[in-house]
Design goal:
244 residues, alpha/beta, Rossmann fold, five-stranded parallel β-sheet
């Protein structure tokens, strides 16, 4: 598939290098425009239908995160391209799909573009379709510790789990909530084989209870109880694989 993209970079030479690499090694990327500051970038984003934005962090009149704040909800992916490695956490929190360091490694650039292409392809397949997981949830049970013993839950009754420091909140179909003194990683290990997917550092969802996927930023899922949960960019491809 073709990825419609823009380059946002204040240094003309850096833009030229990136454009040359993309033209030569990433033919699926169609460059629709270039911007040297966030004001120009914002205008392009608001006037073009984009799949991907290559984004430098530090620019005149603000930085990449200022730009994304101004854009608000978005249905394009972002690949950060920067000479600074101290923005990686901020980029992750901004739902960046990939983080490339300058000077650009061609293999990493190809890998980043392929990752975004995979995500967009899966999203296109899912658009306007009823979400039906390709794997059925295995009916089973899980025990959760209590002061006087343990409680047994049917895994099919669990909608999602939410991290709370070293505890986990388990949300059930009957609108009840259980607070358990186990980490979310514990439940991820225990429930992955039963059709649960880690969609965010703080959330584990029952894939069979997902009724809708919403594009934007990292994307989000809506569960059968209408709860909307953000999907981190690093988890998006794995989640979408359940449905196609």
């Amino acid at each position: 598939m073709t990825l419609k993209a823009i380059l946002v970079e204040d240094e003309a030479q850096s833009r030229a290098i990136l454009k040359n690499y993309l033209t030569k090694y990433c033919p699926k990327v169609e460059i629709l425009g270039e911007a040297e500051n966030i004001n120009q970038a914002l205008e392009l984003i608001r006037t073009l239908e984009l799949d991907l934005v290559f984004l430098d962090v530090e620019m005149p009149y603000g930085n990449a995160f200022d730009l994304l704040d101004k854009v608000g909800n978005r249905d394009f992916e972002t690949i950060f391209v920067t000479a600074y490695n101290n923005y990686a956490v901020d980029a992750l929190n901004a739902h960046a799909s990939y983080y490339l360091m300058k000077p650009i490694d061609i293999d990493e650039l190809i890998k980043a573009v392929d990752y975004v292409s995979e995500i967009k392809s899966k999203e296109d397949v899912l658009q306007d379709q009823v979400l039906i997981p390709k794997t059925n949830t295995v009916a089973g049970k899980i025990t959760i510790p209590q002061q006087d013993g343990f409680e047994v839950l049917n895994t099919t009754d669990i909608l999602y789990c939410k991290a709370d420091d070293n505890y986990t909140e388990i949300y059930l179909k009957n609108d009840k909530k259980k607070l358990v003194s186990k980490t979310l990683k514990y439940f991820e290990d225990a429930l992955t084989s039963s059709g649960f997917a880690r969609v965010h550092k703080s959330y584990l969802v029952n894939v069979s209870e997902v009724i809708k996927y919403v594009k934007g930023k990292g994307g989000s899922v809506i569960l059968s109880n209408q709860k909307q949960i953000m999907v981190s960019a690093s988890k998006k491809s794995d989640l979408l694989s359940y449905f196609n």
